[in-house]
């Protein structure tokens, strides 16, 4: 990837442009202008450069709380599984028998990578939401939902549990779909993907029929405020998960696009469910929320939720906020399913976006991208670091930088000079002591 960093920008001019546009901030702020700028949007997307840094979660907590309390946002939807996040949603909304604490509910998030949502930072957010919702009516309580598509078997189990209680006549339809997938469960979708190479659409008919029948019977379900909606969403997850795993074996951008199209459809469903004036906060990786058209993802045929939301709601109704850092530590694994580890994030590659921001000054800062749209950054792709749940710091120069036109990719960007590792709940040495999770006593 080094060719993206050489002879592409006049570094001196670029750093001067960054210096003029930068808004430095410290542990206690000041992000007031940023909150005002993004708070008018219907959808605010808060990114992250990795899934394992404490500071990204801390600042997204802070910004989300202010958007909820000051700007009237109705829910947070994250790059997580629907069934797990829905259980957390029921806890923060005080539903009966929904758990005794955020800590206990989050311990049930057991899909690898567990640290993404089962961590102290989300525990702190959950308790804030729980307390914020105390005095609100059911329809006004702030929600927390999952946007992702991985939870095929968990979603099927949730559907069965609901139907056995509320609609026994539908159980046989759900069981037929569940039993079709069950032989492939042990490999988390990979076994099903391989099987579809030999028998295309192996279980597609079963899940499509299940979704159709649930939607037909939906008006007759008389349960609490959200349970029927959640059951329909789980059926939608099953349909899209089947598509995702079928596409995965073929390679290319199709499986990625299925996933982000599902995220966008889920966002639209949630906004509709919460009413015509509802407002959403999205938490997902920069590669999902930063407009794909401003990166090399577009040339590979990939779309993402940031691009799709701008197209659906209009650019003035969507605020995309990216995050990044120069160096630090991160929680990640050496391979999918590996034991989580606290890894060193090396200083950013020379010529990258993070490198330029560090050379502007070694302090935390944020930018409105409008202030950079008459600069070189509008014309020249710059490498922008992206760390996934699988990470090899020693090789990051070969695959962890996304060439990006930054003023088009985001509406705002938050830069942190040094980041620390997230605090997972499932690592024993972390004990039960909650770390400092807010910028300052809020």
What do these coordinates show?
The protein has 442 residues and is α/β, with parallel strands linked by helices. It folds into two domains: 1-76 and 98-125 and 282-442, EreA/ChaN-like  fold, CATH 3.40.1660.10; 148-261. The chain contains 16 helices and eleven strands. Strands 1, 2, 3, 4, 5, 6, 7, 8 and 11 form a nine-stranded mixed β-sheet that branches. The protein has a two-stranded antiparallel sheet with strand order 9-10. Helix 3 packs parallel to helix 6 (120-133), helix 7 packs antiparallel against helix 11 (227-248) and helix 11 (227-248) packs antiparallel against helix 12. The radius of gyration is 22 Å and the shape is globular.
Number of strands: 11
- Major beta sheet, specifics? 9 strands, mixed
**Shape descriptor:** globular
CATH homologous superfamily designation of the largest domain:
EreA-like (biosynthetic domain)
Helix content: 40-55%
Strand content: 5-15%
CA(first)-CA(last) distance: 41 Å
The ordered string of helix (H) and strand (E) elements is HEHEHEHHHEHHHHHHEHHEEHEEEHE
The residue-averaged pLDDT reads 91
| CATH architecture label of the largest domain | 3-Layer(aba) Sandwich
**Residue ranges: pLDDT <50 for 5 or more in a row?**
1-7, 428-435, 438-442
